[in-house]
Amino acid sequence: MVHLALDHIWMFISQSETGLKSPYSRIIFGLSIADVLQSIGIFASPFAAPVDPQHIFGRGNVQSCSAVGFFTIAGSLAVPLYTLHLTYYFLKRVKYKVKPQDFANGQEKWLHIIIWMYSIVVPSLAAGKGMINPMRRGAMCYLGPSPTGCNTNDEIECIRGKGAHLVGAILIVLPLAAIFVALLTVLGAFTLHVYTSEKQLQPTKQGTAKKAEEKETDDSPDEKSDNSPQEVEVDENKEPEQNQQEELSAFQRYEKQALKLVLTKSAIFQSSLFVLSKCVKDALSILV
Q1: How far is residue 262's CA from residue 257's CA, in Å, rounded to a whole number?
Q2: Which CA distances in Å does 148 have to 85, 117, 136, 157, 201?
Q3: 212 within some domain
């Protein structure tokens, strides 16, 4: 599975015209790597759990569970962060007309550094403190105390990961909630931009139709002057026709831009729902 995912990422890079030269391709590459890390952790967790009668598929030990949990936590943090990075890049490109090269030279590299530093430091801290342990009967190696249920049952003593729920709530759940709020903010900015663009399109469309009606009136035989030469009449009608074509072309460009914005808004809304589901899932896995 991992080999297949890496092959797809390599095909994306090799077959792309720009490779990793554009900010978009680099963000997608980082998002893909984060998704692969998370997938590795989720897939390997049941087998990496320590051997125990409660762990159905457990074939590993404490160290293997901590290692696999490291990948799971790193991926679960990097994926929503890169989703926010991607939507923020679209906002800068579409609304603020920032060129890809300017974005690459300015904010992009720092965003990559922040994403990976945070995604690596948090699981490293958790692994160093012994807070990554098998949960849900060994189905997932994640942030939590061991044995399972020791934080809620006074009769069970926590051997490892005491206080893991509090650390997880502060370092994972709260940041994911903040990411979701940031995505909603970006979505709101896009929605406002689309609404403003649609408002600007309506007068343009009405003005174009009015110009076309005026042109038809000017071209009617009853209102033509017999004393004007034909050459002058052609020159007089040439400029309105050219203006009408320019207005139609501008309207079509605005219409295409608005359509792209609507599609982008829909994509960001889906991303927001995705991050919300991850916030709920991670909160339940840590707090329950």
Answers
A1: 9
A2: 35, 29, 8, 10, 59
A3: no
- Distance of alpha carbon 101 from its chain centroid, rounded? 20
pLDDT tens column, 238-271: 555 565 555 556 556 655 655 555 555 565 566 6
CA-to-CA dists, residue 213 to 43, 209, 230, 232, 245, angstroms: 66, 6, 22, 21, 14
Kindly state the tokens that stand for 7: 């092959």
Rounded distance between C-alpha atoms, residue 4 and residue 195, angstroms: 42
Give mean pLDDT, residues 40-52.
90
Average pLDDT over residues 135-162: 83
What is the four-CA torsion angle of 141, 144, 147, 151, rounded to 10 degrees?
-160
Q: Structural domain tally of the chain? A: 1
pTM, two decimal places: 0.73
Residue 108 belongs to domain with CATH number: 1.20.1070.10
